[in-house]
Design brief:
There is one protein chain. This protein is mostly helical and about 110 residues long. It has one domain. About 65% of the residues lie in helices and about 0% in strands. The protein is built from four helices and no strands. α1 runs antiparallel to α2. It is elongated and about 60 Å long.
């Protein structure tokens, strides 16, 4: 993988990481303890608030997983290991990396 390609992947990974961090900050309030809105008291409003909180927490958990994957990909890029399958050592096709830039395995090894 040439330096220009590595630079493009680094920019793409860093941009996605920044976007995730911004989204997480904007969503922080939704993950807090549910407080009942005194204007709309009732069982359904509380259930709705709890469901929204649960969805926000699940979204946050998915963001954290993706953040770890992005940081690991950036680390592999820094170490010169990015784009190589962790199972067989062969290079991961750029078409796969274009779709899944955090991929750690080639298609063959990912299937097994």
């Amino acid at each position: 993988m040439d330096e220009g390609t590595k630079s493009r992947y680094r920019q793409r990974l860093e941009a996605r990481l920044s976007a995730l961090q911004a989204e997480s900050g904007a969503n922080a309030e939704a993950r807090e303890i549910v407080t009942l809105d005194q204007q709309s008291v009732g069982r359904l409003s509380r259930m709705d608030a709890m469901q929204q909180q649960a969805m926000a927490k699940a979204t946050h958990a998915r963001r954290e997983v993706e953040t770890r994957q992005l940081k690991a990909a950036l680390q592999r890029l820094s170490e010169g290991e990015y784009g190589y399958c962790e199972a067989c050592g062969e290079s991961i096709p750029e078409t796969r990396l274009a779709i899944a830039p955090t991929a750690t395995k080639c298609v063959t090894c990912a299937r097994s």
